[in-house]
Design goal:
single chain, mainly alpha
Length: 147
């Protein structure tokens, strides 16, 4: 029959590639959405924890702390973005101060170690090494003369 139609071979056309591609694309989109949802849940948990801590401070804090919290609330209501910016700047400044303090302490430690090395007498160690060489030389000379 193929000879009658003038065809020498049979060609199969598979249409499975487009459903498979569609499934992979939809799977990737779903995976991305699940990851974003998980990150959002983590952020919600962080906010919930911060809210509980704040509410506990409100309940059990003393009068000066109550005043500070009320001022912070008023400042946040007045300018939320400004407060966020100032808090982040202060956190960055304090982090830099802490890092500078740590480097300063390390430098002072190195300076003290160098001063201690400088204070150690160099001459006695030099004399000990020379006397050790001299005594070993005398000992070897005595051994040779005895032989």
């Amino acid at each position: 029959m193929l000879r009658i139609l003038g065809l020498n071979h049979i060609r199969h056309i598979h249409h499975i590639h487009w459903p498979l591609t569609t499934c992979f694309i939809l799977g990737g989109i779903t995976l991305t959405l699940v990851v974003f949802l998980d990150l959002a849940w983590d952020k919600i948990d962080e906010h919930g924890a911060a809210d509980i801590k704040y509410r506990e401070l409100r309940l059990w804090g003393n009068e000066p702390l109550q005043r500070i919290l009320n001022e912070a609330d008023s400042e946040y209501v007045a300018d939320p973005q400004g407060m966020e910016k100032s808090v982040k700047q202060e956190e960055q400044r304090r982090l830099e101060v802490q890092q500078t303090q740590e480097r300063l302490e390390e430098n002072w430690k190195e300076i003290r170690e160098l001063e201690d090395k400088k204070r150690q007498p160099v001459l006695p160690t030099l004399l000990l090494s020379v006397s050790a060489e001299f005594s070993s030389h005398n000992l070897s000379c005595r051994l040779r003369s005895a032989v």
